[in-house]
Amino acid sequence: MLVPVKWLNDFVDTTGISPEELADKLVSAGFEVEEIIDLSKDVTGVLTAEITAVEKHPNADKLIVCSVTADGEYTVVTNNSWLKPGDIVPFAKDGARLHSGTVIHKGELRGVLSDGMFTGGKELNLSEADVNGAGEDKVLVLPKGTPIGVDYHKALGLDDIVLDVGITANRIDANGILGIAREVAAVTGRELKLPKDYIELPEGDEINGKLEIVNEAPDLCFRYFAAMVTDVKIVESPTFIKRRLKAAGLRPINNIVDITNYILLEVGQPMHAFDLKTIKGGKIIVRRAKENEKIIALDGKEYTLSPENLAICNAVEPMAIAGVMGGAGYSIFDDTTEVVFESAGFKRDSVRRTSRSLGLSSDSSQRFSKGIDRYSQMMGLKKAVGMVVENGWGKLVGGTIDCYPEPVTEKKITFTAADIENILGIAVPEKDILRILNSLSIPTTSENGRMSSSVPGFREDIEGVNDIAEEVIRMYGYDSFPQESKMYGALIPGIVTKEQQNAKKIASFMVGSGAFETLTYSFITPKAFDMLGLEEDADERRAIKLTNPLGEDYSVMRTSMAHSMLKALATNVIRRNKAARLFEIAKVFIPKSLPVTELPEERQILAFAAFGPTEDFYSVKAVLESLFDYLRIEVDFEAGAPSHMHPTRTAYIYAEGKRIGYVGEVSDTAAAAYGIDKRAYLAEVDADYLEKNASEYSGFKVISKYPAIERDLALVTDEDIEAKKIIQAIKEAAGSELLTDISIFDVFQGANLKLIGKKSVAVRLTFRSNERTLVDDEVVRLIDSILEKLQNSLGIKLR
Amino acid sequence: MSNDKLKQLFEERVRAIEESPLSDDVKDLLIGRSMKVIKELGELKEKTDRRDVDDFRVRHFGKSGDITEFTKLIAKAPPEFKRTMGAIVNGIRTFFEGMFIDVEKEFSEREHARKIKEESLDVTLSRPTLKEEIGALNPISIVKNDIVSIFAGMGFSVVDGPEIEYTKYNFELLNIPEDHPARDPGDSFYINTEILLRTQTSCVQARTMLTDKPPIRVVCPGKVYRPDEDATHSPMFHQIEGLVVDEHVTLKDLKAVLEQFAKKFFSESTRVRFRPSFFPFTEPSVEVDLSCAMCGGKGCRLCKGTGWLELLGAGVVNPAVFDMCGIDSSKYSGFAFGVGLERAAMVKYGIPDMRLLFDNDRRILSQFK
């Protein structure tokens, strides 16, 4: 919120306190000051000057040469030949900087030296609201009596400092100059005083003869408070009001409308003013709008309302969208003489929903959306009628109407200094607690160590002792905590679960295998399913949709990591990186039902992706095989591929008969869909399974002290026989007692083999006994039975 | 052994043979063969092929080698000469064996030196593939691991919760009622009116309090989601939430714990500053500033001249939250804090734009080895 210091001074005198000091005090009290804006700094070097003499330019008909007095005597050449001696004008000296950023230099104009230039209002960012004539496109002539030779800001009273103050969501009372002033009074120890135009509300019941108010929706409008003024004169507001409104970005309109906006800024209470004659039937009805009820708002647009929206109606139709905007035909007109001021409390979520559903936002709706206390309605109304009376713009009508079915009762909180210490951990003396709370307009007394606070209506955020403790410490100062580091409490060990440890182990392993960890969004584009080539009825398409995504590209929760990883690969391929191994362990979201009625299953997936000149199916598979080995998880690979993978270069991974993932080459169509023009490899593995089932080192095995015998077999097999089957057959034939290792170290397929549909497979067998040195004969017998088995079950021969 | 010395020793042996009472035939045989062996031994020193050494050993010390044959002479010698013969032959053999061991050793040394020379590498070269074979965690994981270890060391356990959450845990139980502005769709990603992407890891606080009994000391790292995207906001980001519930826990304890954290995470000289703030689930609430990691508090670009970095939000758990989560607020108190990991990583590594953390270009990722 923008807080001009001059405005603040209406409530609390800050003379002698620098803006920086004031800002520091507010920050330490919990009000962040984003910026200190010196309004005099936007334009510099422009002084007020009086023209003392005007002469014709010797070389140009349209120019005149003026002698001026500012902080010295100067000569200015201008084409504003209508200027005359005695005029007071803004004079930009040599080196002056205008609002546009232009710097003025002295120089010759057609042979005559000009010491600077005169400016209009626009160059100084002034409008009619600031000074009469500032809106015109010519040199601005300032009022007679303006001091001469001083910075124009100061001369016109435009020099001010504005603090941009951040208000936390709980301090709804501080969304106005008055609320900030209360804090300033507390932090500076100075007195808070209300300006004299906060007058007592009129007594009597004259108003009841002219107006009736019915609140049919107390659940959306907790208070509807109104007062009336008559014999109103509609005029322009005084300059200081116009300037303050303009500085806040509000357009001055007329005195009555300006009052409502002024109070919005000063009290934080949005107000509305109705011309009594537009209140048909003399009746204001606060009610939910009817379905399809229409209103043309002050912005000139027609809005169609529904019972979701609260409307302020007369006996016939809506006159305003409650808390959002008034209707065009029900505001203040030049001939208005009787004005009803509305000072209402609308529920924040009601205003917010209406504002959103109509796509209509205003200063009022933004203010209401933050929530409004039940105290500001009174303050707003006092100020509204006070401004009318004090300025002589009208007369009070006796009495007010206050629809306030559930008035807040005063809150009392009792506590001791020890209660406060139990929360803060440091002892704040009772006298300081009393001083602080009273300075914050929270009247607090003490009797035998029991303190009692009466919480004022505007501090709805204060509910209990913890809130009192916060008020105390933010004023007492957080720097009063000691520098010692002690913590009291039970001795409890920090536990890291087995799954958490294993997750870390997996990540470390992947890093060790040369992979970089990526970070991808959990939400993806629904186009991903087509890019991945998923069937129309594929399970993966059953994804959770966000109702309010940041855009289509971030609108569904991923059901696999494929899209995310392919995008990350594509980033690297497209940017011409030579190679990359990438991994991520992240969640995918599998709905239990659609539409979603309960929390989905969140599955952790380990995704691994790679491309580059040294990568192939086997290099990528090897990373996973080593990982499984490291985690002591036994797996099985079987040919098979999801839609986005190469059909004959992908394997599903099984553990304990359950599919836990896949590894392989990305299909060329999927790769192309992501702009990947190289062979790319991808794997996804159920990380929850790995984390749960990874086993610890479990028991020592004595190693054999006898030598091993290795034998290589060159086999000729049908080309479609998988290595796994050969190994399986060999194991079955030889048993595991003596045959300790089988490895296929070469597979060859080609013309040299002279056998179509065949391949040569070289197998290395390692035999070793734990009990004795093996003799050749034993090994020969085992190999014979292996060969026999290979021949019989798979038709494999020795080459 | 110098050649002169060798020559001298050899001549002593020859003289011993000549002076022995052996027959001239035997003397000639012994001397003749010995001369031949010593000559070959001399030649062997010049050879470079390992096989020459092996060959020499076989020819002279093998089963039927010259020197070995000498020993056979002992057996054949007449009994009265056996002792003399034995002394002489063994003398020669020991001499030659000694000689050969020396030569062989010399040879090995020479060969080794040659091999070392041949195998010399430019060790300042690096093979590109080997050099790049290690990967890296992303900065968020690094920072998360660092922070989790610091708190684990202080007795905090690590807990986890769902990323898609009921509004009950994300809002209601954290004292954020239905009409609170924080529940605006502009501030949260909704799936329906009751389910959303969690906007804060604080939901895990509520879940933990509902299931665990005090004393509670947990941290919860995880992804959270809010609809913002610019240089300092990402629609998905990471937080670590911390919660302590115990008897007599105060704001002072919170400061002590966060001071320890700050010192371990940045440096021992890091200072902690509290500023009043507001969170619905803590009361009092504070913003926690750490003295700037870059300038130490003097003021620099990173801290925008203030000397302080805003890194955490924290506070004393609001008793209303305890009441809703089934913890006796008259007996227990607690504190909670939340750290934004992106911000922590950006500060720690000087990363200028949050979006770079999600870019996934290996040229970025490989900087965090």
Topology:
The complex is a heterodimer of chains A (799) and B (369).
Chain A: E1 2-4, H1 5-8, H2 19-28, E2 32-38, E3 44-56, E4 64-69, E5 73-78, E6 88-97, E7 107-109, E8 112-114, E9 116-118, H3 152-155, E10 161-166, H4 177-188, E11 212-215, E12 221-230, H5 239-247, H6 255-266, E13 271-275, E14 283-288, E15 294-296, E16 302-304, E17 310-313, E18 318-321, E19 325-326, E20 339-346, H7 348-358, H8 363-369, H9 376-390, E21 395-403, E22 411-415, H10 417-424, H11 430-439, E23 444-447, E24 450-455, H12 465-476, H13 498-512, E25 516-517, E26 523-524, H14 528-531, E27 556-557, H15 562-574, E28 580-590, E29 601-611, H16 617-631, E30 636-639, E31 645-655, E32 658-666, H17 668-673, E33 680-686, H18 687-693, E34 709-718, H19 723-734, E35 739-748, E36 758-767, H20 776-794, E37 797-798
Parallel strand pairs in A: 11-14, 25-28
Antiparallel strand pairs in A: 1-10, 2-10, 3-4, 3-6, 4-5, 6-9, 7-8, 12-20, 12-21, 13-20, 14-17, 15-16, 17-18, 18-19, 22-24, 23-24, 26-27, 28-29, 29-33, 30-31, 31-32, 32-33, 34-36, 34-37, 35-36
Helix pairs in contact in A: 5-6, 6-9, 7-8, 10-12, 11-12, 13-16, 13-18, 19-20
Chain B: H1 3-19, H2 24-44, H3 50-61, H4 66-76, H5 79-118, H6 128-131, H7 139-153, E1 157-158, E2 164-166, H8 167-170, E3 195-197, H9 203-211, E4 216-225, E5 236-246, H10 251-265, E6 272-279, E7 282-291, E8 308-317, H11 319-324, E9 333-340, H12 341-349, H13 362-365
Parallel strand pairs in B: 1-4
Antiparallel strand pairs in B: 2-3, 4-5, 5-9, 6-7, 7-8, 8-9
